[in-house]
Structure formats: C-alpha cells, structure tokens
Design brief:
5 strands, 5-stranded parallel sheet, globular, alpha/beta, Rossmann fold
C-alpha cells in the first residue's frame, strides 16, 4: 500500500506564493495546517482577512483550520515604517526598503511552536519563498541552518520546505488558477481592505502579472 503524503504546516501570508503553495499541497493530497502570524504591521489586519477568505474558499478534509498567532513587534521594530505607516515605500522603491529584520526566523519559529508533532515525529514547515527573494533570510542555505536550530529547539527533526525556491513570481502566477490569484494579497498599505495599487508590493505584483502575461484579477483601491 502506498504511503500517504506527510502533513505540512504552511506559513500563509496570503500572497501569490503562499496561496499557491497551499493549493499545490492540497492537490498532492497532503494535509495542510495553515498558520498566519499577525505582527502588528500596518497590513496585517487586511492580510488576516484575505488569509481567512482563502481558507474558507478551500475548506475541505485536507485543510486544517487556520491558526492565527498574534505577536506584536511594534517595540522591537522601533519606529519602522511597517508599524507607523509613515513613508511607506512606493512602487519602484529599492528592495532594501522592504526588509524587516528577522522576518523568516520569527515566522518559522512561532509556526513551529503552534504545530502539533506529526505521527512520524518530523515537523515539516513550508513557506513560499521564490527565486526572486534576494534577502539574506530567503536562501536555501539560510533555511538549512534554521532546520538545525529548530531541530534542537523541538527535540526532534524539523524540515523546512521551499518548493517554489527555483521559480520566479511570474512563473508561480502562470501555474496558479484564477480564483487563487484573486484571493491572494500582497500590499503593504491597504486601503479599505483593498490593495492600494501604489506601494512597493503592489508595484511588484503588477509587474509580475505583466511579466507572466496573465490578466491581473486584483481589485485596487485607485
């Protein structure tokens, strides 16, 4: 008898990448536990709304209820634009302006502690980082080292899965269905629960859809 695919915990930020990742695992017949970490950033409330909508639209026996963790980082980030809403990087800004210190380490660490230990004792965490990610915490080498630290923390093996790491954002878009794309969210300055259409993340989103030659189903506030 063929063994069933092992369950996986997915960091669900609501973006094109993480929603595509959940859909991919579900299509493979895997049990998926989505985790959203709310850090008190100016887009997190809206991001939570989109994550819930996506999970509701994909509800089924393979998708566990969304786990939401609140981890306010306002004090740690100390005046960062992501908590104050001042001087939000606009479309076309440098990538460095989007960086948030210890982002992936924090999200993965709390997702690990929110997860139940699977039957085989091996924690599998997944995130939708792609080939476009040029930040220090987005490389496979970084995640390999995180695996070692988290395995010590958990008292057992931890694997960090990055199935999209060799794909670009446009390639992920081309591989996704329209409903998943429409339910995704990637904006750092949402207006009335809509993408602002002007921030650095919206600019990247629009550019990726153009590069993918895929019609953008996003509703922008402007």
């Amino acid at each position: 008898m063929a063994s069933l695919p092992e369950p996986v915990v997915v960091l669900l930020g609501g973006g094109v990448e993480s929603t595509a990742l959940v859909r991919r695992f579900l299509a493979e017949g895997r049990h998926v536990s989505p985790v959203h970490v709310h850090c008190g950033l100016i887009w997190d409330d809206c991001e939570s709304v989109y994550a819930r909508r996506f999970c509701d639209a994909n509800a089924g026996p393979l998708l566990a209820p969304l786990v939401e963790i609140r981890l306010p980082l306002g004090g740690f980030l100390n005046g960062h634009w992501a908590t104050t809403g001042k001087n939000v990087p606009a479309s076309g800004a440098l990538s460095a302006e989007l960086e948030i210190p210890l982002r992936n380490l924090t999200l993965l660490g709390f997702a690990l502690h929110a997860a139940r230990r699977p039957p085989n004792g091996v924690h599998k965490l997944a995130l939708g980082t792609t080939a476009d990610n040029n930040y220090p915490d987005g490389s496979r080498d970084y995640f390999d080292k995180c695996e070692a630290v988290f395995s010590l923390e958990a008292g057992g093996p931890v694997q960090i899965l990055t199935p999209l790491i060799h794909q670009t954002k446009p390639e992920v878009i081309r591989d996704s269905d329209r409903q998943t794309l429409a339910l995704s969210f990637s904006c750092v300055n949402p207006q009335r629960d809509l993408h602002c259409g002007r921030c650095i993340k919206c600019g990247r989103r629009q550019s990726a859809f153009r590069a993918a030659s895929v019609d953008d189903p996003t509703q922008y506030s402007n």
